[in-house]
Each structure stands twice: as structure tokens, then as C-alpha cells.
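Q: I'm writing up a methods section and want to include an example of the input and output format. Could you take the sequence below and give the corresponding predicted C-alpha cells, formatted cleanly so I can copy it straight into the document?
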Amino acid sequence: MQQYSIYQVDAFTRQAFRGNPAGVVPDARGLSASAMQFMAREMNKSETAFIFPSSDPSGDVEVRFFTPTAEVPICGHATIAAHYVLAVEGAPLGTRRQQTAAGMLAVESEKFDGVIRIWMHQQLANFSPPLEGQQLDALLKALGLAASDVESNSPVQIVSTGHSKVVIPVRRRRKIAGLSPDMNALCSLSTRIGCNGYYTWTMEDPDPGNLSHGRMFAPIIGIPEDPVTGNASGCLGAYLVHHDLLSGDETGVASFYAGQGWEVGRPGRVLVEATRSSSDGPIAIRIAGEAVITLKGIMVAP
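A: Here is the clean output for your methods example:
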């Protein structure tokens, strides 16, 4: 049986056993989709990243992302983890073009404050109409929230920066901390609205240095709760700028840290930059984080 080097990496943290763990196979050449799915299931992390040479001449690497049950087009924390591993294995720092199922994305690695920091560019933000009526009622019931728990002046809305999330503004952090969602109901709703992730967030009582605190649930793709979610944090950045809840500087850049993971014992934070060059222009997103390798080993391919 073929053997492959594999890492476990905690992303969006500088401390081991915090943040969001991802599997990384730095040289996945020869692996079939079914083999990658088996390996991701064996790792049993929210995502495992498999790195290939890019099949697109304009790209540097191709990365495919698998949850324990499905392939997904893009993943924030596994991108951070994958490019951190490349840097640790000796790849030069700088900008790489990453080919993904969500398109070609720029990823930058740099030395910052004595550690390696990875920046991931996401797709331009796209906003669906707010959820209303029966769909909103079903969502709140599945989460165990009342209508009064949601911010009245901010919509519940699907936002995509490459991988869509339902962005749910909650008034009180204690409500987010106490969530115990009906996972079957969330799965059922996902099939109806075409979105697999539910990101609850609040600006009330964030941890020091953070603007927000959130939790993210995606049971239909095998992730009951994701510890620290790069894509969801990028969607939040786009949402805040789109709804004038966060202002940019003189160059149009709004930046903040989004905190997540406390409820599952894996706290971490995502640095988000949302850039809008004009009041009605598109919103560009990039996110950044550090990482820590906690395991390196060999896995056989099925």
C-alpha cells in the first residue's frame, strides 16, 4: 500500500491544542477522490487538505478539501494549515496561487512577530436575500433561539466568499454559549436553502482584542460544530461592511479579529480584512492566522 506523509495542524492559534485542527497531506499525488475521503474520515477533523501540483498553468498548487463525509470547495483553516506546512517543509515565503474548487485564490505567507502568518484571499462577497417567514422560523427553532434573541436591525442572511454561510446576528453572548442545536433540523434546512453552514455571532462581550464572538454549525457535511472558521469569519467581515456595521479606513480597509471556539475548548481568532473601494463597490476579503503542528506521521492510502 502507498504511504503518505500527513500532518495535524492547529490553525488560528499560536498554542497547541487550541484553534481549529486540520489534516494536511503535503504531497497527495496519486490519491483518488475516494482515497482522500477515506483518509479524511480517518483523521476525523472538520477538514483535511490534500496538496497537488496545480493543473492550471496560472496556479502554483492545487488543494482539495474533505470533511469526514464530503468534499467541500474551500476551507479557511485548512488553507492556513496547508500553507503553514509548506513553509515549514522549506517552501519560500511569499505569494502562491492556490487552485481550488472555488476558484484560483492568492495565499500569502510571511514572518510576523517571530512566527509564520498565512493570509488567504477569498472570493468577492455575494449576498442572498434575507431569510424570512417559514425559513427563518425553521432556522430559529433548530437553533433554539427566539426571534427576540436576534438583532432586530440586522438580517439573517446567506453570505458567500467562496463557501456560503448563514450569518445570524445574536444579541447576547450567553445565548450563543447556551446553544444546543437540533442537528437533524439544520440538515433538513440545508437541503432547502442550499447552504451547509450556520454562523451565529455577536459583538456583545467579545474576548480582549476581538470585535466579535461566534459559533458555527455545519452538520450536513459532517461538522456538528467547527471550532474556528475562516470562511465564516470572512463572510462576517463582508456582512459587517455591507450593512454599515463596520467602517473602513481612508483606503477602504476594515479589519478586526473574530473570536470563536471557547464553547468547545479550542479558542482561537481570525484576522479579517474587508476592502471596499466605493460605497456600492464589491467587497474583497482576506483572512489571516498562525498555526502549530501537533502531529506528523505516515498514513497508508486505502
